[in-house]
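With this grant's support, we have settled on a layout for protein records. One resulting record is reproduced below.
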Amino acid sequence: MYNKSISLFDWRSEINLEKADAIGEDLILLEDPVIHSSFENPFKVDITAVIICTMGSMEGSVNLKHFTLKAPALFVVLPHQILEIKGYSSDFYGYYLIISHQSVDSLTAFYIKDLHTLRNAVKTDPWTPLSKENTERMLLYFKAIQRIIRAEENIHQIKIAELLVQAMYLEIENVFHKSLKNEKKSKRVILTERFMDLLEHHYQQHRDVKFYADKLSLTPKYLSKIIDEDTGMSATEWINSYVLLEAKALLKSTDLTIQQISLQLNFPSQSHFGKYFKNHTNLSPKEYRLQ
């Protein structure tokens, strides 16, 4: 009912597009942008962002999975993921490729048939180290896209830019594919991955372990045992973590009312949502918003 997204950041207030290389707001290239205000709280991403990090380090989490990235590295965040940035090192330097959700769909619809490998790799770990050769290749793609965006007199500018982005996507998939371990996953790990995938899609509507157990044809007790043993957190704790992260992001990053947020997260009433939130954070939703 309430579908207002939590954007990565407000383009118009956070980025001076006059200093960026861009095709409208569908494709934006930046070098070492300084963006601070929107990184103070968790936020849901409504774009695809690729960062080629050549210096320094960055720490944060994607969908509650902590990461510490160290250069040279490639970082990818996908639409609908919830991102938290804990901090950058003072010497951090990166090249940013930002693509709108709509543009990604059109770019990959005809030429890149299967991004399953990339999506799964990024869900497991949003970053991967880059070799010297891979770093040079990624920067070549970035610079090529940058140059064609600047070549406004080229009558095929947009089409060439699209083809270069498609080629860069394939290269990104190749880099992540090489970083994946080839060892066979155990049934326990596969089950945990299936639970986490279901959770990412259904946590807004379902907070009952039984829902996920039924989907996996397991008993709630057995599912909870496996998840606890494999992750160190129970299934209920994971569900609560996702719900609370979304609630915090909505409270801090949108102007939705608390009533609207409670409806979006499928609570029977604002009162139920308020009690749930305070039980887990020791703050009311209003107190958290005003922090």
Observations:
- Residues 157-179 form the longest helix (23 residues).
- The CA atoms of residues 147 and 153 lie 12 Å apart.
- Strands lie at 21-23, 27-31, 43-44, 47-55, 57-62, 65-70, 73-77, 82-88, 93-100, 127-129.
